[in-house]
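input
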Amino acid sequence: MSTRREIFDDLVLDSAARLEPRLGPRLAEVEFAVEDVPPSDPAPWERDGVPLGRTFPSNGRQPARIVVYRRPVEGRAQDLRELTSVVQDVVVEQVAALFGMAPGDLDARYGDAD
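output
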């Protein structure tokens, strides 16, 4: 039996893996992480609400990193199907931002609730 945290971690990794055919080896250089909640010091562009994820570009020897915030994402889903969809959209948004793409160009299913 998997915990909610383990299920969420798997959803993030599965969502990232779905993007691999489109991005190839560039995606292998990105680290994905899950944190329970965002830090209490929001970035200036995050003042309108709680962020669901955040992108950290590579910095010297540190690779690019994408963090998905579990509790705010879970709060936007009523069941596992919705949670899977929200996680996928958050991962697509963050990866697209990292690579300077529109989310819909990265994943044709972006924003599709089904």
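quick obs: The helical segments are 4-23, 25-28, 70-74, 80-99, 103-106.
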